[in-house]
User: What shape does this take?
Amino acid sequence: MKLRGLFILACGALVPLTIPAAAHAESYSQPLSTAVGDLPVAAEDRTGYDRDLFEHWIDADGDGCNSRYEVLIEEADEAPTVGSGCSLSGGRWYSYYDGASWTATGDIDIDHMVPLAEAWDSGARSWSSTERRDYANDLGFYGSLVGVTDNENQEKSDADPAEWMPDLEHCRYLKEYVSVKIRWGLSVDSTEKSALTDLVSADGCGNQAVSVELAR
Assistant: This one.
């Protein structure tokens, strides 16, 4: 991310303040069209990818519920009863990809908004195992992990928006996808960037705000 307009007073004159390359702002906020433009372009590389390199699902806070169940509890339209071992009973969930509602947790998959393989292709291959674990269990941004109809998640697989889009709520999907890429400092390939640009324009989403805390 570029930092602009920072100056210090030296010898009576304003001079630019040099920011170390590793430094970055703690948050990002721009219109979606600007956020798409800010995504760096790089060729994808799946060499060495293995889903097991992204440890999930983990119980980071030790409350007995792993990150899959944390998402189910958080996103429920009707709250389930949480029993021993984080067993869930009752509850209702809405999948915004297809507009379906479900009462059985087995009908809901937790989708990584930017799929694990896509994240690997786009920069995660150079991350530490801890960073990949944190990415795979990211509860810090609501759009990182989304409960959706299992068949929709399986149809999406590891596709980016150039290859797959949900039937409904395109603007929400595009905003969440781009937000995750920004949050984790991931790149896009040229086809992906062109598709995101066209989709955002076609759906009239460009002025919607991308506002996200940076994880890296």
User: Anything to note?
Assistant: Confidence is low (pLDDT under 50) at residues 1-24. Residues 26-213 form one domain.
